[in-house]
């Protein structure tokens, strides 16, 4: 099994998306959603391979399970400890490398102790007993300690949960692992607004930019596509001004491309000496999926990931499973144009 990542080509710069795009999604109103992007694809294969062997991974993924906080009649304490357990199992079941569950529990307890300190509460009940090394048994010890804490103190359950999970994730020392609270119930993905151009440089990294300024990709259905612009087009002027002077970037000019005001561009198609003028007006256009897949010859799965956003891990894992999982001969992960995310 091999995994190949296609890096940005053509001058090696990473493209950027225009602002005001609504990337976040509501994945079943789940209270806990962890997106672990380091080793995302390796983790997907590891997850599939270990799923059959591990008795702790059965049925629905612990990351996808419905929290009890959404169940009628659930008490705050029961909902809270279940939420921490969901995060605990999610990390252990899906992280790309093996983890010591005891360290996760110790970090979670540390987070709760810190919360007690901030609230000027007595911490004597927040003492985790010696852990035996058995995942289920040690969780029960943690759960009992949690019950003792919540019995002796009147605490904000949501903040206590957030403190525990945040410290548990921070304990991974992985700057691509984050705890993301749920989106509001009425949060829905919306249309993208802008020109639909992804450029060859980040808008906040003009100081390191080198000419020329060119278009890396065009969003389907966007004003840029409707105007006939294509990937590889060089932007010669922006509202009559060059984006570079004496090989130095001019931020004031480039920023006009990223605003939501109409813009006049002079562009040059690859292989052509002709310079054409295009007037673009920012508009809304259909949202494009940040995960798309297709099968390549030789039983190789191609995955295009345009952003590391909420739901990406689940979508990629599902795509790998549907395509045959460990029976695949290889996988291509296309990250061109991926500006990051959480």
Automatic annotation (TrEMBL):
<feature type="transmembrane region" description="Helical">
    <location>
        <begin position="31"/>
        <end position="49"/>
    </location>
</feature>
<keyword id="KW-0812">Transmembrane</keyword>
<dbReference type="InterPro" id="IPR029045">
    <property type="entry name" value="ClpP/crotonase-like_dom_sf"/>
</dbReference>
<dbReference type="GO" id="GO:0006508">
    <property type="term" value="P:proteolysis"/>
</dbReference>
<dbReference type="GO" id="GO:0030288">
    <property type="term" value="C:outer membrane-bounded periplasmic space"/>
</dbReference>
<protein>
    <recommendedName>
        <fullName>PDZ domain-containing protein</fullName>
    </recommendedName>
</protein>
<dbReference type="InterPro" id="IPR001478">
    <property type="entry name" value="PDZ"/>
</dbReference>
<dbReference type="InterPro" id="IPR041489">
    <property type="entry name" value="PDZ_6"/>
</dbReference>
<dbReference type="GO" id="GO:0007165">
    <property type="term" value="P:signal transduction"/>
</dbReference>
<dbReference type="InterPro" id="IPR036034">
    <property type="entry name" value="PDZ_sf"/>
</dbReference>
<keyword id="KW-1133">Transmembrane helix</keyword>
<dbReference type="Pfam" id="PF17820">
    <property type="entry name" value="PDZ_6"/>
</dbReference>
<keyword id="KW-0472">Membrane</keyword>
<dbReference type="GO" id="GO:0008236">
    <property type="term" value="F:serine-type peptidase activity"/>
</dbReference>
<dbReference type="GO" id="GO:0004175">
    <property type="term" value="F:endopeptidase activity"/>
</dbReference>
<feature type="domain" description="PDZ">
    <location>
        <begin position="180"/>
        <end position="257"/>
    </location>
</feature>
<dbReference type="Pfam" id="PF03572">
    <property type="entry name" value="Peptidase_S41"/>
</dbReference>
<feature type="region of interest" description="Disordered">
    <location>
        <begin position="56"/>
        <end position="76"/>
    </location>
</feature>
<dbReference type="InterPro" id="IPR005151">
    <property type="entry name" value="Tail-specific_protease"/>
</dbReference>
